Amino acid sequence: MKNNQARYIFVTGGVTSSLGKGIFSASLAKLLQARGFKVTIQKFDPYINVDPGTLNPYEHGECYVTEDGAETDLDLGHYERYLGIETSQANNVTTGAVYQTVINRERAGDYLGKTVQVIPHITDEIQRRMLVLGEGGKFDIVITEVGGTVGDIESLPYIEAVRQLKWKLGEKYFLNIHLTLIPFLASAHELKTKPTQHSVKMLLESGLQPDILVCRTEHHLNKELRRKLALFCNVNVNAVIEAIDAESIYDVPLNLLKEDLDEIVLSKLKLPKSSEPDLTTWKNFLSRLKNPTEFVQIGLVGKYVELQDAYKSILESFIHAGAANECKVKVVSLQSDFIDANNVADKLGELDGVLVAPGFGDRGIEGKIAAIKYVRENNIPFFGICLGMQCAVVEFARNILKMKDAHSTEMNIKTKHPVIDMMEEQKSITAKGGTMRLGSYDCRLFKKTKTFDIYKSQLITERHRHRYEFNNKYLKDFESKGMSAAGINPQQNLVEIMELKDHPFFIGVQFHPELKSKVEKPHPLFVAFVKAAMEYKNEGK
Ligand code: GLN
Q1: Is the pTM of this model over 0.85?
Q2: Is the shortest distance between the CB of 417 and ligand 1 below 6 Å?
């Protein structure tokens, strides 16, 4: 192995799904980063979709978009939020993407007449992708979250690839951490280790021996239980780590620190433990989060609100922005389907701010528009993201510019006033996967706008995921009545931000600021929005 060879940590999951492998991986990475190592995290997902971009949010939660425009799993959002780094297309691999590469190579004749098989061709391609981020010296440690649960048929090629890598990488470059569940049986009043024993056996059958066992649990693990787990699962007793249920996902790094997880990992990887982890900023964030001096309620109007994961990054951004303002933000989910002109005052009257969410398609649109009319007329702080911004434009066109049937052509192709219209470059595209305007684009802010005062910078970059856009034909009409463009994309002259002049806080953005909010660097628009909600609560009502 070369000298600048990165260390690889593979995180597998046992017993059940939803154990929080993503949060665990991000927390471990945070501890290692706080000790001065350069760390990144990647996720391998066992489904056949080439990426999660075509998946319904009800199915898979939010689709997280990276700087380079990859549509990825929402766990990448956790990685970025915890570490303050940027991820990319290479950080999220699906079985579909692996097969696509192998099949394309087969069609190109690259296999020279050989039979193409799961082993070695698929497993080789998986290994190539598992190693790639660690090449070139950019990272000291690459953590790979292996999606799915050990024992699933579809995870097998990944486990086999990890097994082969164990031998190729060698001892101090490879570590397998197995995340498992220790259920508590209320009737017996006992924590049970058997499911973990079974899942480790299953891993062993695939040729993998975990080096560290991380145990999700509702109750503390005592010494005896740890010894039992160590004995049955062939790990050192100090490598049995407790991952106790936490009040906030942001407590997890500190809980794992108490268990000395970082030290154990570093000693197994033969890396120096010279400096103590510096978690000062992280701890400051947690202390502000847990000791709020104010409280606001913000409505989240969307059509996927039944599923928390569908708006993951927005919810996390409110946590970051709330902490920055020492304010507890209670997000009240409002299903846009059920909002109309008659009940809007009842539904929104108590709120200190309203965010209208991103989304696709017609369902719930009129509810969003009714909500926007209400907050605009009642001076309640409003923040519209992507579709939320488009709805604000439609509402203004209908009610202020008196263009009665104004709409986005996504919802009404025949509208006389297509104030939101499909971007020119989108018109010839028919394929759905990866074809939207995706990833990071420049935006130039105009001075003397609220948005400029918030960012305090003229050139910003933000991430996008949409096909429709403000129709510049109408810009003059809007500006003459007080809704103006606060920022445009300089290369294509696309309006990226609309704001109202005579309103305490009414900002709609075509991009997704929630994708860039970090624990240690909350997004300025969210911080300003929460602040506006606090001011509204204290003075405005
Ligand atoms: N459906 C809208 C578009 O494609 C908005 C997309 C979004 O909110 N992400 O432009």
Answers
A1: yes
A2: no
